[in-house]
Give the backbone structure.
Amino acid sequence: MAIKENLKNGVQWLYPEAIVECNWLKDHIDDREIRLYDCTTYLQYTDDHPSKPYDVWSGDTEYAKSHIPKSAYLDLQKQLSDINSPYSFTLPSLEALADCFKRQGIGDPYHIVLYSRNGMQWATRVWWMLHLLGYSKVSILNGGFLEWLRLGLPTEEKATLFPIADFTVDEKPEVCVNKKRVLKCIHDESCLLINALTEDIYSGKNSRYGRPGRVPNSHNIPFHQFVNSETGKFITPIEALHIFKAKKISSDKKIISYCGGGIAATLNYFVLHQLGYSQLFIYDNSMSEWAMDAALPIETD
């Protein structure tokens, strides 16, 4: 359904099955076709070496202390990223990525539910990686682990390891773009650039990624605007659409979202996808790469 049709029918999520509530999960947690994964990763920001804007901490320690029952742990950096890249979360080859998902038990015929405990962008990053491989039976747990705890639902310490799954790949590699594509987009009227970082980084007041600023001609739509600050859950579809409309984000444009390392931008991508925007892309290495390449243009307020 295109965004115009969505507007005619009243604004709603076009793929409501891709967002599940904690009470729904509680009622279905014993279903054999559901496989649940904790996707939590932590970032510790540093000021002393801009070529490495943050240290990455696995969420496996917190997972071992307490997690939603019957959930396994996915390590985004160690298992699902290119460990030979100078950047923290670069996509590996799609073949390697699909094989890793398969070995972690993700694939047919299972309905995959993803959650994190420190913001839904970690879950949307894994959702996006599965999306570009063509696997669609994936949902985000609305509000994640904190909402689960808020509702007083049970947790456990026992680790879950799922058996291997049958992963059939239907690749969409075009949804991931590189810096050359972004450079061409700067002066392309058919294309829009969305910076999903906070305003201080976007404006150039914070030089976390090296050279301060943003890709020229970018719109700033921070990812956290799409999550209710009190509940940690997604805002409503109409609220989300108003944010994009206020920035004149048109559905007839090619939309490239980026952030610091390709994580936060996937939350924007997920919301745009849910609203019916169809020409969507992620600049994977984002400002971690762009700001460190002096040959690339940069813009500040």
